[in-house]
Amino acid sequence: MTLRRLLAVSTLSLALSAGLAHAQAGPVALDRIEAAVTAQTPRVVAWRRDLHANPELGFAETRTAAMVADHLRSLGMEVRTEVGKTGVVGILRGGRPGGTVALRADMDALPVLEATGLPFASTATGSYMGNTVPVAHACGHDAHIAMLMGAAAVLAGMKADIPGTVVFIFQPAEEGAPPGEPMGGARLMIAEGALADPRPEAIFGLHVVPGRPGTIFYRPQGFMAASDRIDITLHGRQTHGAWPWKGVDVIAASADIVQTINGLTARTIDPTTTPTVFTIATLDAGVRYNIIPDQAVMSGTLRTFDIAQRDDLVRRAEIAIDNVAETWGATAEFSVRQNAALVFNNEALSAWLAPVLTEAAGAGNVNAGSPPTTVAEDFSYLSQEVPGVFYHLGASKDGVDPAASPPNHSPGFDVNEAVLPVGVRAHVLSAIRFLERE
User: Which residue, 87, 146, 228, 274, is the most exposed by fewest CB within 10 angstroms?
Assistant: First the structure.
């Protein structure tokens, strides 16, 4: 036998042996995972409460990032910090060969004054748009961080049995790019290599929302809306409130623009096929009750599920706003900036994930055909890069109708801590079952 053939046979034998070892090892048992999650739960709860009491705004998550990085290093992971300003990436290389999967959590809080009455409620402040503002985890990102930290600990404890690599992405600035920043946390982390070396084959993420506690719901394809920020500035001519005909009334023009936008969405788009929300949420104009000002500034949000329809609606809105302004003798400036793309869940991956999430949440607690939701998430940019699935975890208080639960972003929003182990299990199982798959 030649040396070359001997080497080839030896290489094939090693490959077959590795494959046999992989097959013989089998999947990690669910009861082992459940025991590990139970052991980590007190730490997960403590982390969540600490993070809740110490929230930080987007791209200012320095304490949070340091806490995450220290934890991942303590688990023996390779850790990269300052990926996208304050982002953290941890890499867990399993003891057996295999693919690569990523898990993601967001870290930023909101400029909201908390009104939950919790003993660990936030009293923190931060700087937003040049002002000192109250800061609170009014969206549940404190729970997201804690659950992924718990999943990291569980998976690190099973390192020898993991066939492949798990990438942990702790992302800043999910709530949108702060004023003056060109992009939010997901896009910046991608630009700075969060999904490179190693590159995941799939990515998974979750979000706590009002819902029956411990239930998981999502859908294939479009799940969460694309989000655009709309800014409109009207220029008129200032005059006395008693002599409106001597000026150009931007207040009256603003009212017409709001009604025009409402009419465009209500009367030109079929809501049964592509849900669309176009809201003007702020209107800033004038300083005195008897002076019609020379300028009005409006801003709002556009939520869509169809790119072509969105582009057409933006085009028609700009034309309509210019026409309204011209009717009143005013001029208009119109601009659009995307905050998040459509969260598109990969169809094949969504179908594969349903039984895995059922392992995590229990029979009857997973809905893989949930209706779409008009809230947005910049996980969308991560799942544009690699196939992904994003799902929601119901976290209402026990015995409280989810419809009556304080919504995300409200002062009273809180997370039922009983769901934290479900989220940890979902992270662990989605990663390990993906790597174990045929």
Answer: 274
Start-to-end C-alpha separation, the chain? 34
Answer for the pair 170, 80: CB distance below 8 angstroms, yes or no.
no
41-75 pLDDT per residue, tens: 999 999 999 999 999 999 999 999 999 999 999 99
80 by DSSP, 3-state: which?
Answer: strand
* pTM recorded for the entire structure: 0.90
pLDDT in tens, 190-230: 999 999 999 999 999 999 999 999 999 999 999 999 999 99
In the annotation, is 108 catalytic? Answer: yes
Residues whose CB is less than 8 angstroms from the CB of residue 221 and which lie 6 or more positions away in sequence, other chains included: 344, 345, 347
Fill in the DSSP letter of residue 378: T
The torsion region of residue 330 among left (phi > 0), alpha (psi -120 to 50) and beta comes to: beta
Candidate list 106, 142, 174, 378, residue with the active-site label: 174
Q: Which of 112, 116, 113 is nearest to 49 (CA)?
A: 116
Active site (annotated) includes residue 270: no
Could you write out the three-class secondary structure of 90-152? EEEECCEEEEEEEEEEECCCECCCCCCCCCCCCCCEEEECCEEEECECCCCHHHHHHHHHHHH
**Closest C-alpha among 328, 334, 273 to residue 302:** 334
| pLDDT (mean) for 2-13 | 36
Torsion, Cα 100 103 107 112, to 10 degrees, reads 150
Active-site annotation holder among 106, 108, 228, 377: 108
Dihedral in degrees, nearest 10, Cα atoms 193, 194, 198, 201: -120
Nearest in space to 231 (alpha carbons), one of 335, 311, 319, 324: 335
Phi, psi of 79 (to 5 degrees): -130, 130
At 374 the three-state DSSP class reads coil
